[in-house]
Structures are given as C-alpha cells and as structure tokens.
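Before our next group meeting I need something from you. Please put the record directly below this note.
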Amino acid sequence: MAERLKKINFKQLSNIEEIWQAHKIRNRIVHEPDFHIARGEAWMIIEMYKKAFKELGLID
C-alpha cells in the first residue's frame, strides 16, 4: 500500500496526507500488539477514507 501511496500526489487526491496518517495507524494496529485506538480517532480515519473514496469515484 505504501508503494501505491507514494505514487499519488495532492492533485490526484486532496487528502493524501490524511491517508498517509491513516496508513501509519493501520501499521501500528497490525505490528504493535499493545496499540489501542480511541473510538473518536477510529471514526476520524473512517471519514478520511470515505473522503478519499468519494474523490476517487469508488463510492457516492
């Protein structure tokens, strides 16, 4: 995923920096057994992905 994200720029996806943040948190969830995410932070990440998916035409 990181390799794909490196190929995307702000002109292609306005919230690419947010998606990088979300990807880093995803990595922490996967690689750090004791990592916990707050409910509010999880919802923020979902909204980041939702915005990106809409921009990319993947959802309405």
About this structure: Helices lie at 2-6, 16-31, 39-55. The first helix runs from residue 2 to 6. The chain has three helices and no strands.
